[in-house]
Amino acid sequence: MTLGTRYPHLPLLISENGISTENAMPRADGITREDALRDAVFWTQKASRDGANVIGYMYWSLIDNFEWGSYTPRFGLYTVNVPTDPFLTRIPTAAVPAYREIIRNNGVAPDYRPVIGS
């Protein structure tokens, strides 16, 4: 049973959705941040088409954050090397162009097919 079916009158806000990596290194499972982002938006759009009252989607997070006493793992669309960069330069990850495209197109393309688990 889907959330849209179980709670048809409640709004659904996807929050804090993303994947982590270790200091911009590729994940062992091969999943990229941009693939995870596109797939999440695909499934969010599908839920909306299937009747869920989706009111929004938020990626987690805009920049890397200090969690669990460390700056790793990294979650941000932008990497910030807080311990070593006194200027706190925001370095875009490969997910930034993907997110810009999603915003520009109001979602992923209708012919997009998820890559994770396929």
How would you explain this protein's 3D organization?
- The protein has helices at 3-6, 33-49, 95-104; strands at residues 11-17, 53-59, 78-79, 91-92.
- The protein has one domain.
- It contains 3 helices and 4 strands.
- The model has no long low-confidence stretch (mean pLDDT 88).
- The chain has a two-stranded parallel sheet with strand order 1-2.
- The chain is an alpha+beta fold and 118 residues long.
- The radius of gyration is 16 Å and the shape is elongated.
- Helix 2 (33-49) links the parallel strand 1 (11-17) and strand 2 (53-59).
- It is 26% helix and 15% strand.
- It starts with a helix and ends in a 14-residue tail after the last helix.
- 19% of the residues are buried.
- Helix 2 runs parallel beside helix 3.
